[in-house]
Amino acid sequence: MAITKVCGIETEYGISVLGSPDANPISVSSVLINAYVSEAAGRVGWDFETESPGNDARGFSFETPVNVEMETHLVNTVLTNGARLYVDHAHPEYSSPECISPRQALMYDKAGEEVLKRAMKASKRFMPPGQEIVVYKNNSDGKGNSYGCHENYMMDRSVPFAKIVKQLTPFFVTRQIFCGAGKVGTEAPGSQGAVRFQLSQRADFFEEEVGLETTLKRPIINTRDEPHADATRFRRLHVIIGDANVSEISTLLKLGSTAIVLSMIEDGMLDEVELQILSPVYALRKVSFDPGLKATVDTTDGRSMTALEVQWSFFDVAKKYFERDGIPSVGTLEEVTELLELWEDTLTSLESDPMALRRRLDWVAKMNLVDGYKERHSLGWDDPKLAAIDLQYHDIRPEKSLALRAGLETLLDSKEVGAAVFEPPKETRAYFRGKCLEKFGDSIAAANWDSLIFDTGKDPLRRVPMMDPLKGTFNHVDGLIQKSNSALELLEGLGA
Predict the structure, then answer these.
(1) Rounded distance, CA 205 to CA 189, Å?
(2) Which of 88, 267, 390, 395 is catalytic?
(3) Helical (H) or strand (E) element with 341
(4) What is the rounded distance in angstroms from the CA atom of residue 496 to the CA atom of residue 488?
(5) pLDDT for residue 457 is more than 60
(6) Sorting pLDDT into bands at 50, 70 and 90, what band is 394?
(7) Is position 382 annotated as part of the catalytic site?
(8) pLDDT per residue over 188-223, tens digit each?
(9) For the purposes of burial, counting CB atoms within 10 Å of the CB of 341, is it exposed (0-12), middle (13-18) or buried (19 or more)?
(10) Is the pTM of this model over 0.90?
(11) Structural domains in the chain, sorted by start
(12) How many angstroms separate the CA atoms of 168 and 223, rounded?
């Protein structure tokens, strides 16, 4: 039986400074996050001691990269909603708390956007006159540099990694038809000038089928084996191939369809499905470069299939899977029903008239804006004004965002999103982390995903492990947290 797909999204945001185009991005990112933290709860640092990004799911390990050592000296804090906010390389990054379902993960991803909006507003107090920090939820600076939007899903450790690679790769190559963020032109070597508009911002930057890297020679399937949980029971599938979505529907489809496919892999639903793509990296770009959705990819058994046909193959199995047991690993019956209906409706519309989804999917909405502006002003595809529209689509300032102007449909209540900026999910260990930070922040020395380190004023420091993402929930610990008047009382209660 597939295990609960605890999931979340890590988003590296693009950043610039109006009035100072050559500003140091690391310094600016630090100012941005410090500004937010100064107006929110007190800072609790990140505990790197148990981090192991060099562990590879294929059975070997590398030395900890130098950039991880460097990150310990950058701004790095934990929020009361259970999320992590920090400087990653040269970008502000928001990593959502562990969520119990795709819809909840969507809500905390949007809460991250709200955090960055508030950070921009707060940072104005620290910037010289005439300068303003601007944040973009995108994946490329247009100069050959890409930054990530990574998803994470909890999986059963007993599932062989080779099976995950085999059955997941064709899904990842083709899911961009509904979760791509859209892009004017290309940055892929040798393709400049040949691509006017493509589905995905990230497809240009992938060079390997399988691998550990996230910044160079990026792989379709990332092998980082860092579960942030009991490694004998759980695997954290670290997905680096997705775009940063502004559309709530694109985000929900991305999270929901992937969680369903991973559950199908765990339960053996894809074991009899023969669907392997020849040259997945080439196929990834071929699909992205074709907004008409007519391009075909070759399979190992001699077929040529469109990305839509590949996605229909996965959906058809998912529908049978749902009829069998309801897919409780992905959410409630109502939530999974909504996901499947949305997935089916989207594929149907893409098949008949993709532009009908211009208020639902990012790449369609952006292409509609770009095409309209291009035609009105008789511009060529290489006109820099089109690239500017591409960028402004991702501007998270409400008064500047072209995504908002596109009239994208929404799924979430703004009050819920606002609450999620401060309140953690109740159904995962994020609840314990967030509520301890809220109530006992002065007694917490450091935190990470799988532990909290308390300083009660008495040596030594005390680490509280949280090795099961489904423990430390509201039902498990809220009563104890509420009745504890100090961190020491809390620790004594946990010991009892």
Answers:
(1) 9
(2) 88
(3) helix 333-352
(4) 12
(5) yes
(6) very high
(7) no
(8) 887 777 899 999 999 999 999 999 888 778 999 999
(9) exposed
(10) yes
(11) 7-418 (3.30.590), 426-495 (no CATH)
(12) 13
